[in-house]
Amino acid sequence: MKVTVKVPATTANLGPGFDCLGLALPIYNEITVEETVMPGSGVEINIIEDSETYDILSIPKDENNIVYKAIELLYNFVGQTVSDIKITIKTNIPVTRGLGSSASVIVGGLMAANKLLGNPADEAVLLSIATEVEGHPDNVAPALFGGFCLSSFEDDGSVLCSKILWPEDWKLTVLIPDYELDTKIARSILPESITIKDAAYNIRKCSMLIDAVYRQDAELMKKCLSDKLHQPYRERLIKGFKELKELLANKDDVLGCVISGAGPTILVISKNDGFEKVENEVRQIFEDYNVNCDIRTFDIENEGTKVI
Ligand code: HSE
Predict the structure, then answer these.
(1) Cβ 19 under 6 angstroms from ligand 1
(2) Annotation marks residue 303 as catalytic
(3) In this predicted model, which residue has the larger pLDDT, 102 or 37?
(4) How many Cβ atoms sit within 10 Å of the Cβ of residue 86?
(5) Region 229-242: what's the mean pLDDT?
(6) Angle between helices 66-77 and 123-134 (to 10 degrees)
(7) CA quadruple 299, 3, 20, 237: dihedral sign
(8) Average pLDDT value for the chain
(9) Which of 149, 13, 10, 173 is nearest to 93 (CA)?
(10) What confidence score (pLDDT) does residue 287 get?
(11) Is 177 helix (H, G, I), strand (E, B) or coil?
(12) DSSP string spanning 109-172?
């Protein structure tokens, strides 16, 4: 028996919501998990590149693979051990770009393995295992449920998650550059501690941001996308981000731009065709840096992971 699932890409943080806000985008990886017929064949991991997803060679294909690790935790949860299993990952989400490719394969592996086992784990368990493997819930929650998710990794290992309706006319444009940024590096440059002033700044921005989405208030949203926890430290690693922020600051129907997850992709949020009106000026910024940028505009993805 084998099970294949389709899992969306995600963009995390949305500025002030470091490690807790994320939303899903309609770019998909497909993950197939199957029991192998030959006993003793162990774990087999195949990666198929569906389009230009860049550095897939760096993904481990043994027990160190994060999908395998997640599946092993699920089997342990139900009191079993993983024996002979084949995992096939068909990648379409660019890797090491800040679009949740690791969250997508973790969630996909868990969903598929859970179905193979007869669905012993509920969504809360899958979310908690996925968060344990990923380290934070802001990508795995929207990868699992779709939409705009707020999530909190609790001290007991459980994860709280709320989904809030994203305004239909708020479009999401991702600017995916042709260079990589490893999340481990982008996290390692963050300070160990921050001032209470910066913490208070983020709490007020993040609170107002959630209200802006809830009430679909674009003018309020424009004031809520800044933060002091991660972007000030990371922006020197993201070519063009500073210039882009300045360019977009006063454009009609552009709500703002943020680093997507740990970067280097940048997310621009705009109303209707707001981004199209500024696209040429945006392209110029990246041309000046000699960076090829794949620019794609989407509606939010609301379905999350699906068995196909
Ligand atoms: N919240 C995470 C970070 C997302 O900013 O490091 C990237 O995995």
Answers:
(1) yes
(2) no
(3) 102
(4) 18
(5) 97
(6) 140
(7) negative
(8) 94
(9) 10
(10) 97
(11) strand
(12) HHHHHHHHTTS-S-HHHHHHHHHHHHSSSTTHHHHHH-SEEEEEE-TTS-EEEEEEPPPTTEEE
57 Cα to the center of ligand 1, angstroms:
22
Q: Using the atom order of ligand 1, give the atom closest to the CA of residue 230.
A: 5
Nearest CA to ligand 1 atom 6: 262
State how beta strands 159-164 and 254-259 pair: unpaired
Q: What is the mean pLDDT of residues 209-227?
A: 98
Tell me which residue has its CA closest to atom 5 in ligand 1. 262
Q: Which atom of ligand 1 is nearest to 259's Cα?
A: 5
Q: For residues 32 and 3, is the Cβ–Cβ distance under 8 A?
A: yes
Catalytic residue among 183, 265, 301, 305: 183
Tens of pLDDT along 181-198?
999 999 999 999 999 999
Q: Which of 14, 19, 151 to mutate to test the pocket of ligand 1 (most atoms within 8 A of CB)?
A: 19
Distance 221 CA to ligand 1 centre (A): 21
Q: Are 152 and 20 in contact (CB under 8 A)?
A: yes
To the query of whether residue 11 is one of the catalytic residues in this protein, the response is no
Locus of tokens 């774990």: 43
Q: Is the CB of 183 under 6 A from ligand 1?
A: yes
| Domains (range + CATH), the chain | 2-165+302-307 (3.30.230.10)
Residue 231 has pLDDT above 60, yes or no: yes
CA–centroid distance, 177 to ligand 1, in Å, is 17
The owner of tokens 């600051």 is 249
In contact, 23 and 172? CB cutoff 8 Å: yes
Q: How confident is the model at residue 58 (pLDDT cuts 50, 70, 90)?
A: low
Out of 23, 105, 139, mutate this one to test ligand 1's pocket (max ligand atoms within 8 Å of CB): namely: 139
